[in-house]
């Protein structure tokens, strides 16, 4: 046997490395990494913000850490998970309500009436001195009006008595009045029933054959239309779905979500629909409320499909007729009244319009003719009676499912709605094959040259100056989030909750959870700091805060902070478990006595 093929004893590739060797040490976990993983398991923020808190009464200063509050798991996984659980609580509390969450404002107090009456006197006096051109008195009255407005807000009055928040009640942008478009429905869109929207968020209960009231709710999934045949997986349950290419694909096929024919796939329409998807969602809820005749409430999130098109999952309070919901989805559209941008006039890698500093305008690189401004391009659309919108966004298929409150299906649906909100919208559809990578690259290339807003520099590629044009505009190099691969065109809110869903914000839900823990531990329901909630309004706060630097000598190293917080969370968890056990024993004893 050749010596080159011989293997010495103890040096086999499958054998464990020798104890004490470098290979054995490299296999050992790192202490700092273990501390970070434990911190994540116990819900400790891994990127805390350090603050110096000074007691204004005693002058004592202490260092406190505040969670960063990130909503993305890539930044801080524990904070993102805590935010996801708050969203789950928010959806759970508002989904299957039986009583209206709308609250009627309290009647104004005498103090509030007097302040608003005094504010009316000041407004009348200001109008008089403005007509008399007595500008010195105008400034004095403005200062007094500001002071009274602060007093009105401190007295517990919401909003402003003047429209737009201006002292004179004028439009804050009088030089640019809003453009009005015709509200006439398109001829190619089906008509919708239109009912007066009642001031209620809960539909009337359905009386079943058993004579009982049923208040089921719904789970809706809204998607966009098709841009061409794509490879799809077969269904594991129900009917077998054959792909549009005529084959059966498993869910792990690397072609899932990619076009059958990429050359005929409409990437431009797909990119534009991603950009304006948030607008067509708003239009859908508006149409749905008008069609059913009551103020439909919803809560959900937006995700990406495998084909890289956004779609939304929503919990809807109340049961809707599936036929009517599909009719509303088919009739919903959003018209983009922008200048035409279907053909590129200037190549982004070639000669592009140049900036003229004298006239502060962009000119053609060959003819030196000034490009039409944004307002001129919109005026041309308004003056053309046969003008068509630059793009029309429509919804695709709608999937609706009934959900009963308090069931396991409801909890499973809530987890399904919130499962991806801690990640970027493209994390769940990261390409796993060459075909998927090419599909993403072609969509990203289309988004790179499309305009994302009226101020986008890409308008220069289509022969139009962007709104508020500047010399720094670089067509094809816009830094807007729409053009980035981590968004793929969608930059709207990932979590969408209607205003009257539960009448609570995330801060309210966070306070509810804190109050529940305090009640369980038999602690005081007023705050942790004594006297903080007993101070008189208008008095200076008992504490002052300032941001501390991570380089300060008294700021502990990150892993030392993690170890302390882990021990603190362990003590909290043990105390909470003991309190739960004690409450259960008390309930068991009460039930035994009652029996």
Automatic annotation (TrEMBL):
Pfam families per the UniProt record, alphabetical: RepSA
Origin superkingdom: Bacteria
Start and end residues of each stretch annotated as Disordered: 1-20, 156-212
Protein name (database record): Replication initiator protein
Organism of origin: Actinocatenispora comari
